[in-house]
Amino acid sequence: MDLKSGYPFWTVSNGLPSAFPPLKSDLDCDVVIVGAGITGALIALALADAGLDVVVLDKRDVGWGSTSASTALLQYEIDTEMLALAKMFGENHAVLAYRACEKAIHALAGIAAENGRVGFRKMQSLYYASSASHADRLRNEAELRRRHGFAIETLEHDNLAARFAIDAPMALLTATAAQVDPYRLTYAIFRRLQQRGVRIFDRSAMLDWQTKSPHVLVRADHDAIVRCKHLIIASGYESQQYLHQRVATNHSSYALVTEPVSGGLGVLRDTLMWESARPYLYLRSTVDGRILVGGEDDRTDQPEKRDAAVPKKSATLMQKMKKLLPHLALEKGYTWAGTFAETADGLPFFGPHPQHGPRVHFAMAYGGNGIAFSAIGAEILRARITRKSHPLMKFFSFERIA
Known about the structure:
Helices cover 31% and strands 27% of the residues.
């Protein structure tokens, strides 16, 4: 599956940070993780910390799939607003999901600190109303979050313009957010795990598997067989090929990064921005003073059409960004696009599916804040495999749509 178009900024700026060998012999372990992106890295870290013997496989180079195309805005806010989520599943579940994402941002800060220079920076998140008709909805959203102890500031038009030079009806400002270079973080985690004895193999595709209780036999390239107790499929948007049930819809998202902004970014250096329209425009800074903007999502799931759409989509993104930020001199740098998947409720899936039994787990961190979901999912999967409990084990599983 072709997951991206062009050359995402992270691959251009980082190159190939490390090399991992292909798998060429049979192995035994506790857990096989298929997928060496940021999701697989966070899961491998959680399982290794639990003392499990982990093997990681990827058919590409490490981080070369969707991770390399991620814009990596780390927010506790889910694409589905808390009000909407509460209507779907009840307030308690909505609050539980949002609290877990808030906790995940802090956990990711700790992981980043342990892994050196990975472009991590604590930020604030500005969620602005795309039109006046969205303003009351966002005010109600803020009130619900405050009622449950979330710190949130409501900025009306004049205050928003004075503080951020943005012309929008109103916005919500939250302090728990961050950004990271997901490609660099993925490599940093895997390098450290390799030093701890975790076996990582790229350019090694999983061909198929057989469950023969109490083991799963994973057949990979070069006729290698890995015998494990649990298999975790963390291959991002390609994971759906292993399920008869359609649990998400693939789309395409487009992004560009500017050249370094002369004169600096001001408050935008510390602020993630996104809007209330769907699909939404979103932007953030980079450590070298650029602005990264994404959006213009469409339902294209054909690589050729996605490739062809990049020039027009990137031009639209640039036009929208200049309209939003007329006080900045912006010049286009790199452009790209990538496949992403969206669930009906904006929530992820972690754990076994009835189709494959209890030893085969899925890690589907789908949605706009997939890295935060991945951090949560790593904890859920560790709890499942070590036979412990987790408050989101059922809600973030396939039981939610059974």
